[in-house]
Design goal:
Layout lengths: L2 H25 L20 E3 L17 E11 L5 E11 L5 H4 L1 E6 L16 E6 L6 E3 L11 E3 L4 E9 L12 E11 L5
Antiparallel strand pairs: 1-2, 2-8, 3-6, 3-7, 3-9, 4-5, 4-8
Length: about 200
């Protein structure tokens, strides 16, 4: 056998042994597998409501300087399954050009300290807001911008709180006469979890 033939025969023998080793190695591997099923996911809910969904919390006709209306209770409830924070804003619209909305003063407080069983009777809870019926940019309590803002109110799931609303036409007001305005209060809520 020539040297070339010997090299070819040796290469073929080594290749055959290598292939046999690979086949044996592949057959010698043990495996196992476990599964974990039923990994279900659901989202929580953020839902806020008030006990005045279609009626006004404060209203008065024929106001004269020095008159006030309130302090009327309004219950804010977290109907969702997750903690939320909320803010209150308002928009007031004059029915005429007399500017009544700018003459009225709105005050919002928490439930009475003296008589919590009779909410807003003493109107002596913590003051959350006092000022124009629709303040700068409509922000009354907190801020509806995303994330925690100064003044935001926090409610746990299924919890509620009572707020007291009072509107005053100051005694020093010299008008406007026969004027009218309407205000809409909006309660914006967002999640607190993963939302610093």
């Amino acid at each position: 056998m020539s040297g070339l033939h010997k090299k070819i025969a040796l290469t073929a023998a080594v290749s055959a042994l290598f292939a046999a080793g690979l086949a044996q190695g592949a057959l010698a591997v043990l495996t196992s597998q476990a599964t974990v099923g039923s990994n279900a996911f659901t989202t929580g809910s953020i839902s806020i409501s008030t006990d005045h969904p279609s009626t006004a919390v404060v209203t008065l006709t024929g106001m004269l300087p020095g008159d006030s209306v309130g302090a009327n209770p309004l219950v804010v409830t977290n109907d969702g399954a997750s903690q939320l924070r909320y803010a209150i804003s308002s928009v007031a619209t004059n029915a005429d050009s007399k500017g009544l909305k700018d003459a009225l003063t709105l005050t919002i407080k928490t439930i009475d300290v003296t008589t919590p069983a009779t909410p807003c009777d003493n109107f002596d809870g913590a003051q959350l807001y006092t000022g124009d019926l629709d303040s700068t940019a409509g922000k009354l309590v907190g801020d509806n911008a995303q994330g925690a803002q100064a003044g935001d109110r926090v409610l746990n799931a299924s919890a509620s709180e009572t707020l007291c609303f009072k509107v005053l036409l100051p005694a020093a007001a010299s008008g406007p006469t026969l004027a009218a305005t309407t205000a809409t209060f909006t309660f914006d809520a967002e999640q607190t979890s993963s939302n610093p």
